Amino acid sequence: xxxxxxxxxxxxxxxxxxxxxxxxxxxxxxxxxxxxxxxxxxxxxxxxxxxxxxxxxxxxxxxxxxxxxxxxxxxxxxxxxxxxxxxxxxxxxxxxxxxxxxxxxxxxxxxxxxxxxxxxxxxxxxxxxxxxxxxxxxxxxxxxxxxxxxxxxxxxxxxxxxxxxxxxxxxxxxxxxxxxxxxxxxxxxxxxxxxxxxxxxxxxxxxxxxxxxxxxxxxxxxxxxxxxxxxxxxxxxxxxxxxxxxxxxxxxxxxxxxxxxxxxxxxxxxxxxxxxxxxxxxxxxxxxxxxxxxxxxxxxxxxxxxxxxxxxxxxxxxxxxxxxxxxxxxxxxxxxxxxxxxxxxxxxxxxxxxxxxxxxxxxxxxxxxxxxxxxxxxxxxxxxxxxxxxxxxxxxxxxxxxxxxxxxxxxxxxxxxxxxxxxxxxxxxxxxxxxxxxxxxxxxxxxxxxxxxxxxxxxxxxxxxxxxxxxxxxxxxxxxxxxxxxxxxxxxxxxxxxxxxxxxxxxxxxxxxxxxxx
Length: 518
Ligand SMILES: Nc1ncnc2c1ncn2[C@@H]1O[C@H](COP(=O)(O)OP(=O)(O)OP(=O)(O)O)[C@@H](O)[C@H]1O
Ligand SMILES: [Mg+2]
Hints:
two-stranded antiparallel ribbon, Rossmann fold
C-alpha cells in the first residue's frame, strides 16, 4: 500500500462515477496532522484501519484506540469477502493481498491488553483537575499539592499517595498556606471526595507502576514495520473523561519526551484520537488553548495527530486549521446543526470545479469520502470524491482466543502485567531509584559544592523524620520496623521511599499540559 513514499488511500471518481486517479497521503506530510469525520456507519473506522496499516508498513509506529472492538481485526490477516474483492477491483487495487499488521494491545484495565498505567506525578495538576472536573478553587489546591510534592520530594504515584498528601495538607493548612498560598479545608475535602469517586470508577487501575514507557509505543518490528498500539476502549468509554484525559496525557508525554526533528521524511509516530469530541466537550478555554498549542508544536517532534469524530464542528477552529490531511465521510443534513456541519466541512476543502462539495458530502456512499491531503510544498490537494481502499487485515473484531495469543507473544509481554507481583516490581524500581539517587546525589555534591548543604527545604510536621525519610530512600530499606500504623506521615514517607522514576534523575519542571519535562 506504499508507492514512492506515499500511502495509497483509495481511488477517486469522476462525476459520472468512472475512475479518476489513485489518492495518496504523502509520508513526509504525515506529521501535518489529519481529520477523519463522518456520520455513524459511514466508514471512519475502516479508514483509520487502512491508514494505520499503511503507516505501519512504512515503518511508522501508530497509536490508536479501539472504541467498539471492531478495530482489533487489524492484528490478523483479512479474509477474501466478496464486497472487499469488488471494492479492490473497482479502485484498481491489484494484487489485493491480505496481511496482519503487527499489533500490541493495551488496556487500562489489563483485560483486553497489556496494562497501561501512569503516576499521579507524571499526569500533573492540569490534567488531573480535568479528570476530576475540579472547580477553580480545587484546582488551586491541587496545584499547591503538586508544588509541595515536587519540591518536597514526595513522589505521588497512585491515588492513595495523593489522598495522603491531601490529608496532610488539611492537617497543616494554616502553616502551608503561609508558604504556598491559600489552602481551603473545604476544597481539600471535596478533592478527597473526588478521589474516592475516581477510585470507585476504576481509575485506580490506571495510577501506579510500572508506568507506560513511551518507547514501548514507538516500537518497530525486525522487518522494519511500525508496531500499532491498539488501546481497548470499549469499557473505558463508560468513563469518557478518563479516556480523554488518558489520551491527552499520552500526547503530553510524547510532546515532552521526544526531541525536535523538524520536518522528517516520515513521522516518528502517528496518533489517532478517536471520539475526539470528548477532548473538547465542556473543556475550559485554558485547556483547549494548551491542546491547540501541543498539537501545533508536536509536529516538529515528528508526531502526526489524527482526530476522528462524527462532526467536524466537534473540533475547535484553531485546532481544525492545523489538520492538513482530511477524509470526510458522509454527513447527514436534517437538523440545522447538521446542515451547518456540512457547510463548514465543505468550506474547509480546496474546491473541485467538477462537483459541489456540499451536495457531495450528503450523497457519499459507505467507505467513500471526500479526500484532500497535503502535496507539493505542503498545500492541500484539490478535494476528490474517493472510494477508500479495503483493508488487508480483517474487517471486524478478533476472537478472545486470538487476542490472548497475540498478547502472550507480544514484545511487551510480561513488562506491564505484574499486577499481583507488585512488591517485586516495587523493589526492583526502588533499587534502581536508589542507584539513580546515589548517582544524582554524587553529581549534585560535585556540582554544587558544600555551600548549599544547609539550605534543605522542609515541610511542617516532618521535623527530624524528614531526615529519616531521606535515609530510607537512599538506603532502599523500605518499611522500618518502628512503623506501627499507617499514619499520614508514614504514607508520605513511604511515598518518599518510592523515589521511583518520578523525582529521581528528573528535573521537576512541568510542560504545557502539566506533564513532567525531561
Ligand atoms: N473502505 C472500505 N472498504 C470496504 N468496506 C468498507 C469500507 N469502509 C467501510 N466499509 C463497510 O462499512 C461498514 C461500516 O464502516 P465503519 O465501521 O468504518 O463505520 P464507522 O463510521 O466507523 O461507524 P461508527 O460511527 O458506527 O463507528 C464496515 O463494516 C464495512 O462493511
Ligand atoms: Mg467506527
